[in-house]
Amino acid sequence: VRFAPYRPPDISLKPLLFEVPSITTESVFVGRDWVFHEIDAQLQSSNASVNRGVVIVGNIGFGKTAIISRLVALSCHGMRMRQIASDSPHASPKHVDANRELPLTQPPSAHSSITSGSCPGTPEMRRRQEEAMRRLASQVVAYHYCQADNAYTCLVPEFVHNVAALLCRSPQFVAYREQLLREPHLQSMLSLRSCVQDPMASFRRGVLEPLENLHKERKIPDEDFIILIDGLNEAEFHKPDYGDTIVSFLSKMIGKFPSWLKLVVTVRTSLQEIIKLLPFHRIFLDRLEENEAIDQDLQAYILHRIHSSSEIQNNISLNGKMDNTTFGKLSSHLKTLSQGSYLYLKLTFDLIEKGYLVLKSSSYKVVPVSLSEVYLLQCNMKFPTQSSFDRVMPLLNVAVASLHPLTDEHIFQAINAGNIEGTLEWDDFQQRMENLSMFLIKRRDMTRMFVHPSFREWLIWREEGEKTKFLCDPRSGHTLLAFWFSRQEGKLNRQQTIELGHHILKAHIFKGLSKKVGVSSSILQGLWISYSTEGLSMALASLRNLYTPNIKVSRLLILGGANVNYRTEVLNNAPILCVQSHLGYTEMVALLLEFGANVDAASESGLTPLGYAAAAGFLSIVVLLCKKRAKVDHLDKNGQCALVHAALRGHLEVVKFLIQCDWTMAGQQQGVFKKSHAIQQALIAAASMGYTEIVSYLLDLPEKDEEEVERAQINSFDSLWGET
């Protein structure tokens, strides 16, 4: 008898694959001990107003991601760090071995040949700070990087799914993993599908409550644990019209976190108002004047770079000598220019090391004065003529416009999708891509990502007074991507159809044509999308577009011919209008009604949009639907009308509005079901649920002069439940 080997059941949750191009396998980590010390002190403090979490605030390129990655590298997920760090362009693949040090290792302590400007802390203090960092890292159980050029990392459902997937892979939470394996319903609650429909419920019931219970049962260690989230500001680029961004999601959920589960998050200085609702302590990385420790960090980094490279020493020594005064002058000059940006220092030293910048006079005229100038210099060296830049510009346009990193093959096809005559040959394309390889880094999954978000932003936008050379044109990139999607042989899936809609709207290629051809550009765009794909209705009713709808893309899909009465796969096959009424998405309801959606189309349980809106208490939607003559007296399969649904859930304003509606218009039941019946049922419904306000309102309704008594009778039996 041969037995099949026993395979333990696996968890169906998969962590997202993050890769951070600006952190390579050669990155070193210098300084920042004070940051770890302060995070540690705040999280351990007994003051509940600061110990829930810490926000690290800093400008772009100031090392926020490096701090997060340093903690990940030293945590139980450290092995994943090899996926997060990009292979550095300099490392030759032959020398890669499994035992290579993790990225962001600390260099050996500073050399003493050149004295640093400030005295380093005592060894005792250094040890305490090192301990703080190790202690924090040992508490890390999950992490998440938001990257604007990789849209999935910015969406709430993916965030919830990824955090859960990492939590159940951390050794401290073995008990949580075992519970997920024992209780498949918990895993399905955390599936991407469930996370799209109700991320809050998924997170609460799939993550927070199980962890809280395991903690009470002493099945997970009684200590503090940390979730790291990098770049909350990046996620704002993908803000849905309805539904949360990761920040607003956390702001609503933080009150439900157990006190022992902390957050350490980062945000860019210019966007720090997005975190005002998070009750966290803030640490600022760009307040150079107020914080001497930042100065020491920069000093230590400069020292490290100079000492670890003889090329740098040669290229900065005046007439062959490198003495303390020369060094002091150079380092204070660079520190001032950097304003605290590690990225500026790193790139400037890279230029010096390769001999592109040689400082032979003490005026430092050749040194670029800002990150923007560093990028300008890099591009000028790489593309000395306008025509050499024109050859790669379409590639950059596509990369800038895409919602996620693309493979070379994809970019190649997109570029060619825009050619009417002739095509770009693959060899020629590869040559152009090779020229961009220092800016567009190839990731492990073979897709390309910008070397740093600041470079991507520099390509699209400049500050006042900055040179506009090398500016890209995202609109052209959107156009090429839209053409590429339109030219796919196979069918586009729902997500791709939505993406095509996004690119068509951003490309806006019919701008100014409407006067010439007499057809508005929105109709031309609708025609375009209708010729490109068949699944317009399915895309309109796809889960993501139901729960986090994009109004403009939805309008485009409807113009292209999507069915506004399409039945969805949720709420008992409810039509789209029912789902949007249930969710309270007023703009979507208005859009569907504008294009003639059936106002009384019901789900299989017999509920109409009015019933869903009344039950959920969305007065503005109830009003919209009634303006479109929704049937007030429609009964669902349980014989309940909208008024009863509102009363059952305590929505007083909706109850008042529905009673004031004109019920004589409806009368489709030939007077069998009167307003008085509904009011009587509503009274019983409200009383059974204990909604006193509604009960007293219904009992105080004015008597009518006619024979029909409208006021609810306290002792009458109602026709629905036969109760009083």
TrEMBL record:
Residues 107-119 have a biased composition (Polar residues). Residues 85-131 are annotated as: Disordered. Residues 286-380 form the TANC1/2-like AAA+ ATPase lid domain. One of its GO terms (biological process) is regulation of dendritic spine morphogenesis. InterPro entries: AAA_lid_TANC1/2, Ankyrin_rpt, Ankyrin_rpt-contain_sf, Dendritic_Spine_Reg/Scaffold, P-loop_NTPase, WH_TANC1/2. The keyword Heme does not apply. It holds the Pfam family WHD_TANC1. PROSITE patterns: ANK_REPEAT (PS50088). SMART domains: ANK. Residues 382-534 form the TANC1/2-like winged helix domain. One of its GO terms (cellular component) is dendritic spine. ANK repeats lie at residues 605-637. Keywords: ANK repeat, Phosphoprotein, Repeat, TPR repeat. This is Protein TANC2.
